[in-house]
């Protein structure tokens, strides 16, 4: 059974940083691509960042230069380093395992002005 568990969310002031983690189990981690999505109140879920199984990355224009996605295959964990946070980054952030189309429960990120 695939399980994705996000952590690291919280409340931070604008300009601050957070690092989200997504611990995966029940999958062959190194063979899988992963995404981070986010959903703000009243808005659709949007793709934030993607990392392929070989480590190639892609980002939404709104976070380029501020967010970094990475992976540690030894720890079965995907990370999202978020710097220079803005109030508009406030959302629930979700980890997604591409090949399994599996989602975590989400972690709340709130950025105060």
Explained architecture:
There is one protein chain. The chain is built from no helices and 11 strands. It is mainly beta and 113 residues long. Strand 9 and strand 10 (102-103) form a beta hairpin. It is globular. The mean pLDDT is 97.
Offer a few descriptive terms.
113 residues, mainly beta, four-stranded antiparallel sheet, 52% strand, globular
List the helices and strands and how they pair.
Layout lengths: L2 E5 L2 E4 L4 E8 L8 E6 L6 E6 L5 E3 L7 E6 L4 E6 L8 E7 L4 E2 L3 E6 L1
Parallel strand pairs: 2-11
Antiparallel strand pairs: 1-3, 3-8, 4-5, 4-9, 5-6, 7-8, 9-10, 9-11
DSSP summary: helix tally? 0
**What spatial form do the alpha-carbon principal axes imply?**
globular
Biggest sheet: strands, sense, closure? Answer: 7 strands, mixed
Low-confidence stretches: none
Helix-strand pattern: EEEEEEEEEEE
Radius of gyration: 13 Å
Number of strands: 11
Approximately how much beta-strand content do the residues carry?
over 45%
Q: What class, by secondary structure content?
A: mainly beta
Percent of residues in helices comes to under 10%
Distance between the termini: 40 Å
Oligomerization category of the chains in this entry? single chain
Mean pLDDT: 97
